Amino acid sequence: MRAVFEAILNMMAKKEDCVLVTVAQSFGSAPREAGARMLVGKEGRLLGTIGGGMIEHRSEELAIEALFAEKTSLKKFTLAPNDAEDLGMICGGRVEVLFQFLNHQDECFNQICEAALTQINAHKDAWLITKLTGDVVESGFYSEATGFLRLEVPVAQLQNKRMDWKEGASRYYTEPVSQSGKVYIFGGGHVAQALVPVLAPLDFYTVVYDDRPVFLTKEFFPEANEFVLGSFDDIGQKISLTKQDYVVVMTRKHKTDFALEVQLLKTPAYYIGVIGSKHKVALQQERLQGLGFAKEEIARLTMPIGIAIQAETPAEIAISIAGQLIQKRAQQGGA
Length: 335
What we know:
The protein has helices spanning 2-13, 53-69, 107-122, 190-199, 254-264, 278-290, 295-298, 314-333, and strands spanning 18-27, 37-41, 44-48, 73-78, 94-102, 126-133, 136-143, 147-149, 163-167, 170-178, 183-186, 206-210, 226-229, 246-249, 271-274, 301-302.
C-alpha cells in the first residue's frame, strides 16, 4: 500500500487525476482476493495489479473511461465463458471491481494518503476505511495517532484482516494498511543475510538481533529495518515481543537456540520458528519437557522452520522461511 499512497500523492502534486481500481469483493476461483489494487492514469496502469489477464485489461479500459468521465463506478465480472461480457476466462469465480475517481484537488484524500504514509513509516497500526453507497464512495482512515478521519466505524471492525459489512444501503470496508508486527531474526549469519532481502519487498519489518556488533551493519543487512545488539541469555533487557510479532531463531549455537526457545515460549509472540535438523528438534523438545513445558506450549515452536521444499542452501532456506511467514501472516489475518 505504501507505493499506492505515494503514487496518488505524486499524481495530486502534478495536478493529475487518477482512478484507484480495487477488487471490492471476490467469490470462488478468482485471480486476486478482495483488496487487490492498481492505480490508473490517463496513459493507463501506473502500478499494482488486480490479477492480470483479461480482467485487468478490461478494468484498465474502464478505469480510463471513468477518469475522463470523472465518475466512480462498481462493475461485476463473472469469470466464465458466455458471460454477458465474456473475458475469455474460465476461472469460474466472480469479482466486484470498484473504480474510484480521485480528483487531484481532493484535499481530504490527500490527507488520508499522508496520514497513512506517516503511520507506515512509523510502523504503527492503521486502517483504510471505505463506504460505498451505490456509486458514491467515501474514504476514511484510522490510527491511534490520528483517530478517525472523515469516516467513523465500530472499533471492533478494525481487525488485522480485511472486513466488510452492510449497514442499510451502504457497504463498508476496513483493511489494515500498516501493522506493528515485526520479524525478529536472532542470529546474523548466512541464512539471515539471505532472508532479510527476501522479506523486504514482502512488507515484513525486520529486526536483526545478535551479540556480535560486526554483523549488525548495513554492509551485511542493507535492507534490515532495525538492529539490536544484546545478549541471547536475556533478550527481555533489549526487546519486548507482542502477539503481533514473528520470531526466527538461527544463531550459531544449538545451546543459544535452546536458551532463546525457553525465553520465547514465555512471550506472546505469534510465530516462533527455529532452524535445525529433525534430530536437534527431538532433543530440544525433550529438554523443554524436562524443564516443565507442556506439549501444548512446545507446539508453539515451529521446528524445523520453513515450508518443506527440500531447501539446502541459505538462499533456498530463506525462500522456505519467507513462504511460511507469508502463510502464517495470512492465517493471522483470518484468525
